[in-house]
Amino acid sequence: MFKHIVVGFDGSEHSENALRIACDIAAKYGAEVHVSHTPKHETVSFALGAVAGYHVATTQPKPEDIKAATEKIFAQASTVASACGNTNIVTHQGNGDPAHDTLKCADDCGADLIVTGRRGLGNLGALMMGSTSQHIAHHAKCACMTVM
Q1: Of 55, 108, 121, 134, which sits 20 to 30 A from 102 (CA to CA)?
Q2: Which residues contact 53 (CB under 8 A, 6 or more apart)?
Q3: Residue 36 contacts by C-beta under 8 Å, 6 or more apart in sequence?
């Protein structure tokens, strides 16, 4: 039923829950899990927030900050997936809008399912459901699951 599952991942609690559920489904169906992450200012800030001298509110991330934050986010995703018994996730880094990048990842790998967290680390544009997960649900060419 499911062969390729894409997970939108930004390091938030909801995205970790999405990855756990995707790994559970993947284990049942023998599916491959693809983790899509698009570094945005707030996710770089989240990932590097503990770095001394990094001022979240006043500093735009440098390319090396973005690279370090993305590596940290993918390491976090790998840790979560490994804890669920999935030691072989495929990672995809976007460079634009997280919703568009996740949809492109899904199209590129022929995804049967996209799993996203209800709220991530993005702006507060949507109160009930995050704007990224909402956009994905409206534009995906495959099944979508939004989790808390």
Answers
A1: 55
A2: none
A3: 6, 7, 8, 9, 92, 94, 98, 101, 102, 105, 106
| Domain residue limits, the chain | 4-147
Q: CATH topology for 4-147?
A: Rossmann fold (3.40.50)
Q: For residue 89, give the amino acid letter.
A: I
* Interatomic CA distance for residues 30 and 2, integer angstroms: 8
pTM: 0.85
- Per DSSP, the residues of 25-67 read HHHHHTPEEEEEE---HHHHHHHHTTSTT--TTT-PPPHHHHH
User: Which of 82, 117, 116 shows the shortest CA–CA distance to 6?
Assistant: 116
